[in-house]
Amino acid sequence: MAAYPVYDTATSSLVYCVIPDPQPNGTDLESEIDSVSESTASGLTIHSDNVSGYFVEHHGRQQPASENALRFFPSDNARRYILRHILGKYLFGGNYSGFVKDMLTSDPQRRFNVLELGTRDGTWAQDMAVEFPNVRFRSLDLVPVMAHAPRPNVVFEVYDFAAGLLLPDSSQDVVFINVASELVNNYRALLRDVHRVLRPGGILYIRDYNLRLWEPQDGPRSVRSLKPAGCSINDIARQVLMSLGGEPDICDKIPRWLAPDSSLWSHIKSDESKGFERVETTTITYPSYPHQTYPCTSKLDSRIVPVLAHYATMTARDMFGILRDGGMTTENANGIIEASIEELKDPGKCTLSRFYGIQAVKRS
């Protein structure tokens, strides 16, 4: 079974949320995980009545108050963020890319500075701080999602970093952008500021996704015929995301933006170094929902199957506010979400999702 630590403010100690192994007796794993997560994370999410300046209420859920934030997925579902971290760590085989590892292990005597943008549940920073105890980690978020276990080499800060990073030029050795396509409404401006705070030769590492579904390579049917409800939700979500300033296919665009000849760097003087080099993209394809009859699922570790199943259904339900913003009534939004979840669970309607890892080196 998989377990992750969270900081319990009531007892001032670490508690662990356990993701159980698949049960042979047909137990509803999603209900079990939801129950465990609910009991463990209860009270850890920071509510708007405690820090009202950070949040606004939108369709009954918390969203960032900042005008520079994307009010897309709600900010109050810490369990979804934890499950995504576990899934991403499994799919990529760890928390970092090869460039990051090479940097952080290159000089044992040096105290490297690593910046994460998009703390959420804080699990990435916590994992990294334990693995690299001599590295200084700073993790930023637009809103406080939950309490974090204190560690001597990690600092958690909350401010509107989308309006500007409060860090000196060339002060960071590594910057990790953690699914910021859901956070900021001007990703290009964020990349410019990240370039500013990275030192020459510093590493940029990004994890994100494109808002779409893919059909199996050997599938005779199109995604739209397999999952009409899911595709309708995706269509609306893409339109809403674009109306907010987001990019539904951002992972296709980031490598072009990072290139030295990109218009992103037009503000930099001609005699100064621009952009990034050694830009590499890793694309991980995985089943949108795990079915035992689907070949891709047989390649998954059995321990990750309930994590993926729960993450998929939780993500679908968290799209309620997005659908309302897209013009749907409450009744229709709830109806199409439940229809999409039935499609997800139907082994005859398998589709694929993709997670992207992008690494690059700031030009000297």
Quick structural gist:
The chain has 364 residues and is α/β, with parallel strands linked by helices. Helix content is 34%, strand content 22%.
Number of strands: 11
Superfamily (CATH H level) name of the largest domain:
Vaccinia Virus protein VP39
Low-confidence sequence ranges: 1-49
Describe the main β-sheet briefly. 7 strands, mixed
According to CATH, what is the topology of the largest domain?
Answer: Rossmann fold
Percent of sequence in beta strands: 15-25%
Q: Estimate nothing, just give the exact number of structural domains.
A: 2
What series of H and E elements makes up the topology? EEHEEHHEHEEEHEHHHEHHHHE
Organism: Rhizoctonia solani
Protein name: Methyltransferase type 11 domain-containing protein
InterPro entries: SAM-dependent_MTases_sf
Pfam families: Methyltransf_23
Describe the structure in your own words.
This protein is of the alpha/beta class. It folds into 2 domains: 47-213 and 245-285 and 354-362, Vaccinia Virus protein VP39 (Rossmann fold); 223-237 and 291-348, no CATH class. Helices cover 34% and strands 22% of the residues. The protein has 12 helices and 11 strands. The chain has helices at residues 29-41, 78-92, 98-104, 123-131, 187-197, 223-226, 228-243, 250-258, 295-298, 305-317, 320-325, 330-345, and strands at residues 2-8, 13-19, 55-58, 61-64, 113-117, 136-141, 154-158, 172-178, 198-208, 276-287, 352-362. The strands form 3 sheets. It has a 7-stranded mixed sheet with strand order 7-6-5-8-9-11-10, sandwiched between helices. Strands 1-2 form a two-stranded antiparallel ribbon. Strand 5 (113-117), helix 4 and strand 6 (136-141) form a beta-alpha-beta unit. The longest helix is centred in the middle third of the chain and has 16 residues, at 228-243. The chain is globular and about 55 Å long. Residues 1-49 have low confidence and may be disordered.
